[in-house]
Structure of ATP-dependent RNA helicase:
Amino acid sequence: MTSFEFTWNSNDKPTGKVFARKKTTGSKLPKEKSDRITSEAKTNLAKTSQSTNEIPISRKSIQLENVQVSDETLGYVKRKQKKDKLAIKNVQIESDETSKDVVHKTSNTSYSLFSMRRKEIYVNTDIPGKSVVEKVFSAEKKFSDLEIHKYLVANLEKSGFTTLTKVQEKCIPEILAGKNVLTRSQTGSGKTLAYAVPILNALQSINPRLQRQDGVQAIIVVPTRELALQTHELFGKINTFQWIVVGHLCGGENRKTEKDRLRKGVHVVIGTPGRLLDHISHTTAFTTNNVRCLVLDEADRLLDMGFKKDIVKLVEELDRSKTNAEYDPMSLLKGNKSKEETSEASDEAICSLRNPKSKTRQTILLSATLNKGIAELADFTMKDHVYVDSMDDSYKLNPAHMVIPNTVKQEFIVTYVKHKLFTLSAILLAKAKHKVFVFMATSQMVDYHYDLFRKYLVNMPKNRGQMKIGEVSLLENSDFEDSDEEEEVVLDTEFFKLHGSMDQSKRKEVFSGFRAAKKGVLLCTDVAARGVDVPEADCIIQYTGPQTDEDYLHRVGRTGRAGKSGSALIFLTHEEQEYIARLQDHKVFLKERKPEDFLHHLCVVMEEPDQEKAATALQRRYEAALSKDKDLRRAACFAYSSWSRFYNTYPTKLRSIFNFKNVNLGHYVTSFALKETPSAVAKIVRGQLTTAEPRRLNKKLATHHGSPPIHDRKWNRQYTAAPGGGSIPDHVAPSTLLLSSRPI
Ligand SMILES: Nc1ncnc2c1ncn2[C@@H]1O[C@H](COP(=O)(O)OP(=O)(O)OP(=O)(O)O)[C@@H](O)[C@H]1O
């Protein structure tokens, strides 16, 4: 018998040693012995990696030391080394998971939520770099220092506005001087007051006083109805001049009521582009020849939402009515100045708000981001504008860099797709005392999660903690749902939802309800991403990634307003983590949060000390709810389907990160608490299937790259003709293809 020794060569790290005995004949070791080698190797290595608390990935291959062995023996040893290496790898994975205390280890429950191939988070968050910081408030200037009416100052101060923000300090004097202005300033920096104050001041100074029949003097264009309402409210708050009438026009409102309002006379009209154009074209009482000021607020958003055409039409309409008003045949006959001369003369004095007699229109464009589109819009809508940037004059802002309030703590969380739903639930439990925005991709997603959380997260059965048999929690059993257990509130917060498919009165109600609430969760689409001002909102969650980088900025910008603090968290999957690097290129740096920072909240509400079991139990609860509640299941199917449509039409710039080809659709179905296969969900959405198919997931179904089946071909044609291109996967329901390409 010869004895020899394996040594794990691990760069000065403590070594685990494995001993084996071998017959001189060179025959293979008996099975028990070779098993022992493997198990000893495992044990020693597990001990080593536990003691060093390191992942021994860099360990070199096993080497023989000080041993004379025959070729045969060497062959055996090499085979053994290979086998042991494999064993080591397995131990490494296990020890890695235990030592790092991660959640994603193989669960001993039969449910597979936690048994999956381990994926790494490789994005580097430690790269040196500074985010761009923009001050919000001006150090010295107050509203009382401006040349504006003292009553206006008094009212501003009464409303809590004393010190000027940077953008107000720089912008208001320029607008008061009658100049066309293009302004860039970060979200929540007070751009609305930057134009509202000079407009009201100019209108109050008109002598003799404005009368109702003088018609519209200023038009303010905003991208969403909520923003129109909010801006109207702000004007109402600071307007002390009773004779100046401010009104709003926006889609979804009663046209007739708006017409009546216009007929009575309105001086400042705030509205969304479509409805404004509609009234300009069809309401005779809406005369635009006296319009002396046009404001395009959230200009980047107006362009993003595809309002460019409407704006062009609106501007042309305003120009035409001005020209018609200037056309005076009598004065031409009398040998007065020609029309060109007249307009040249008035162009010289660009002081339309300051000088009531001026015939030129003053234009103000405001945005939180700058791009080529905005520059073109500025060129089209105004002549000789001044550019106002609220960044310190000494700093030259690179347009590629995004400026986000530095009072916002920005974080990201990388989750497995299957874990998304319960991780979001855990975060909502953690943020129960906060005012939270949760951004989702589509209206259907918002509807579904709103119902799911309100019914099955807010309340839990009272005796859920005791309902266990041995290791298995009854919460994981769908029968549990049928019991008439008493329920208790575990999440003491109010849920709201907001998206573009809701009717206007409901949107209004929700928006004011959420603004007034002390705490709450607003599940919403990007309809709430721009301009919406909910001052106490202190947490932003992006459950689905943004479609553009500007969307990221505007979503985050719903918190940290006017110098207040807030936090923002974006959900990413392992496949999407590259987005962090992309944000770093924009000088936006995010810190990492781990799922386990939140999952312990599930232990509390599920009365289950084991995190994995608690998470699994909640997922099971949701799934059981869907089996019982057909409407909810249908909503889940539509939500999933609309998500897949959304994800498959990411703009080119982000498509390599949010790549439909990389997603495991089976896992995504789970993230909607559905037990069906992706194809079955698509069929349910098509209405071809009324009962659920048992779940049959295989790799092919899960990561589908093949061409769609024949019955989908006509949908395929329809789809490829739609904006965004690409071919329709089997799992995308045709009905969702009819949604707008930007379903907000
Ligand atoms: N001078 C000021 N002092 C204190 N608070 C102010 C001042 N000006 C504005 N605010 C407050 O700041 C918040 C943000 O204002 P506003 O909505 O006008 O910002 P914004 O720059 O238009 O943001 P966004 O780009 O997101 O639309 C509001 O709650 C507003 O009341």
